[in-house]
């Protein structure tokens, strides 16, 4: 080549920005209401997938759709293949954005939109890396398979179906985490918690001073909820004034924002703001649900309301590592177990067990056993009248440090950045674990701000151009 990978990537800056903005403008959140044949997770995700495939066909690649669950773009020949796995689905945007989440905007050298860093922005950078390899004309001995998923933020049903219908490469990378190289991903225990039948009949007594009408917080288990609201029935005006005063004092002590306002006859709405973060790193956020529950649990609620609030306050508030649940553990490879309570809902008018609904994700060390943690969690939940439902265990993923692919990618990273590559372990799960020897490779550089799953999600454009060069060289070196 007469130009370096960096120079080639820089020449694509303007077209990358244009194409990334087009992709990011497609609202690709899950939408069961528009799901159907060829679009199992809804129209928006299906549109984003087909957009990528159409772009690839226009650029001269072989590209095909796998029943709407996934797509595949291929380049090169050979019996062996290298996988590059990305995803089109994004988490719900929530409220409070400076600019609309699906109207991409550039400010201060950063591209703002839902999916900018997770994962549509990096997916487009990796695709452009593949274009650079194709345009270079350099010979390859292996096929590069660029596989596009559609359900990464939920249950990864897309990859399960893809494996039923197609062949997954054994080695490769996913640009959906951090640089330099993520060689270990914690296991995941995802659980829904609902009241068990034994709590039936534990109704709130009508003569109680306080009745919890409803409580709501969160959009997804893998996001730290940044807003929580509760509706109370308070029959005595003096009691309402006392709650108002105590809530203001609570917010002051906690250095938090919130409100207390009348929403009807004897009805009052309390709200509190937190700070969103990725559910694999709950300590980087502030959980609005557990914060509000810690205040409300002080009052004389009864029955299921008391159990719901006390469970949140006593077992989850400011406990990111599962100590109060009896889950705390760690290892040298991947560090501490973490717990995120992503959704918490209560409705006093619903029948038990549907009255309370709590959804959590536990990310446990690579040496841990998900089934053992499940038993401990069940014991803790039972003491508050909750049962575990919809339990999902995704085992840890670990690629040995001496694997040849890791050595190749270490060299690529060092040549492109000038920095010594460290091996990382993360709590987040990526498509890397779908491959026997897959690793997560970027796009977040050391020290860069991580806004995944947050309001005003963004990515640095310079970082995406450098990522493009890294991905291009990585694909070439692995497939040559």
UniProtKB/TrEMBL annotation:
Its cofactor is Zn(2+). The keyword Zinc applies. GO terms for molecular function: acetylornithine deacetylase activity; dipeptidase activity; metallopeptidase activity; zinc ion binding. Keywords: Dipeptidase, Hydrolase, Metal-binding, Metalloprotease, Protease, Zinc. It holds the Pfam family Peptidase_M20. It comes from the Bacteria. It is an enzyme of class 3 (hydrolase). GO terms for biological process: L-arginine biosynthetic process; proteolysis. Belongs to the peptidase M20A family. This is Dipeptidase PepV. It comes from Paenibacillus larvae.
